[in-house]
Amino acid sequence: MEVSTAIAIVVLATLAAVVQSTAGFGFSLMLVPLLSLVIGPKETVVLSNILSAVLEAVLLIPVRQHVEWKLGGTLFAGALVGMPVGLLVVIFLSAAALKIVIAITVIFFTLMLMRGLRIHSAGRGGNVPAGVVGGVLNSSTSMSGPPVVLYLQGRGIAPGPFRATLFAYFSAISAIAVGLLAAAGNFTQHVAFAAVVAAPSLVIGAFIGNRLHHRVPEERFRHLVYAILIASAISAIVSAVS
Q1: CA-CA distance, 54 to 201, in Å (whole number)?
Q2: Buried (b) or exposed (e) across 120-141, using 16+ Cβ within 10 A?
Q3: How many CB atoms lie within 10 A of CB 97?
Q4: For residue 108, what are the contacts with CB-CB under 8 A and spacing of at least 6?
Q5: pLDDT value at position 46?
Q6: Measured between alpha carbons, how far is residue 240 from residues 101, 179, 218 in Å?
Q7: How far is residue 29's CA from residue 20's CA, in Å, rounded to a whole number?
């Protein structure tokens, strides 16, 4: 791996970890479009899931008492149903096509989040369907967060349980996705080395994000994140087309 590639991975992973620990979601939305320009989309999906599993587990430890385990369990059950479908997407789509899928996914859900969309009609019966959609997106693009975030917002989950349950859910499905992707032959030595290089940056990003969470106005921070997400998605589309 070239030094410039390693530096890019560390910088992007740190930035994504800052977003995740500050807002409670957004790690893969931030990381995947830009990282796919550096190491390719298929390796990015694997690496992002590895880093997400580690980061979410670390963030979960201090807030684990706030997790709504029944809710998280049903979301996870749905994700198990959806993940094999997403795996087929990774296997059969070309790298360029997957870049476009990733970029469109980011733009679509970012616009939904910017508009403050919530799935208001969602009750307990929506747990499994929301998990299924998240599972499909997780194993195909590593971006399972938006549909689950929109769903939990619609459920009116309090901020503490909201963040803690997301951490538990993301950590579990990311670990499963890594196993599925590895079984399909997508876990390479290059990905393993990249994960080792990026791991320390997760700690740095989480530390910075936890401090920002209490100091930066949430609305201002979210607007900045949205702008970065849109820009990174457009960059991914341009790269895929060119």
Answers
A1: 11
A2: eebeeebbbbbbbbbbbbbbbb
A3: 13
A4: none
A5: 92
A6: 10, 27, 33
A7: 10
Judge residue 181's burial from the number of C-beta atoms within 10 Å of its C-beta, 0-12 exposed, 13-18 middle, 19 or more buried.
buried
Residues 6+ apart with CB under 8 A from 104: 233, 237
Identify the weakest region by mean pLDDT among 83-97, 172-186, 212-226.
Answer: 212-226
- Pair 149, 166: CB distance under 8 Å: yes
Task: Please give the full DSSP string across 158-181, using - where no structure is assigned.
Answer: -HHHHHHHHHHHHHHHHHHHHHHH
Residue 77 burial (CB count, 10 A): 14
Q: What's the pTM value of the predicted model, to 2 decimals?
A: 0.79
Structure tokens at 191: 């990905």
Residues 6+ apart with CB under 8 A from 153: 118, 119, 162
Cα 240-106-143 angle, rounded to 5 deg: 105
The DSSP call for residue 156 is: T
**Number of residues that make up the chain:** 242
Task: Give residue-wise pLDDT tens across range 61-119.
Answer: 988 899 999 888 999 999 999 999 988 888 888 877 887 887 787 777 777 777 766 55
Q: Where are the beta strands (DSSP E) in the chain?
A: none
Nearest to 166 by CA among 79, 83, 60: 60
